[in-house]
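Reminder to self: tokens first, then the designed residues, so the page reads top to bottom the way the pipeline ran.
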């Protein structure tokens, strides 16, 4: 039988239980409003779900795929390269930014894109996708069909990249 990853359980006064993977550790937030046997059920169900996600993510091997994009000037160069080749939208700047719940954001007002510091040195394919995604938001703010058509110009394998990005986040 496989060894389970480390599991951290916190009991909180909230309606629902939830879980996430943080640096390879399963972090569970269990409702303290539940009876003990229901809390145990929630722990088991969430753990099983997250272990399955971790096992799925292990299918992707990211070793040896580190990109040369490791600072803001490298990131801006990548963004400008993609933009000049495919979009030609107005872009003021691209920087790495501390983000815990998203891979990238942009500001329509300042025409800047912000990429999570978790992607510093990430495989180029993933950085290319996230930068492309944010550049496209400068032209099309919503995730409609027009937006995905724009993304596909610079990143035709964007669906696969999204899956790899999810796996990268779990590793």
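Designed residues (171 positions):
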């Amino acid at each position: 039988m496989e060894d389970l990853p480390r599991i951290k359980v916190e009991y909180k006064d909230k309606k629902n239980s939830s879980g996430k993977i943080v640096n390879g550790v399963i972090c569970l937030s269990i409702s303290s409003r539940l009876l003990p046997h229901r809390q145990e059920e929630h722990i088991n169900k969430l753990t099983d779900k997250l272990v399955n996600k971790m096992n799925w993510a292990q299918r992707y091997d990211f070793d040896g795929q580190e990109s040369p994009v490791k600072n803001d000037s490298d990131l801006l160069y990548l963004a400008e390269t993609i933009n000049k080749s495919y979009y030609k939208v107005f872009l003021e700047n691209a920087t790495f930014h501390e983000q815990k719940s998203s891979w990238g954001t942009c500001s329509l007002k300042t025409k800047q894109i912000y990429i999570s510091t978790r992607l510093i040195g990430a495989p180029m394919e993933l950085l290319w996708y996230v930068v492309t995604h944010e550049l496209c938001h400068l032209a099309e703010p919503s995730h409609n069909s027009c937006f995905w058509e724009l993304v596909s110009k610079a990143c035709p394998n964007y669906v696969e990249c999204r899956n790899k990005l999810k796996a990268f986040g779990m590793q």
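The chain has a mean pLDDT of 89.
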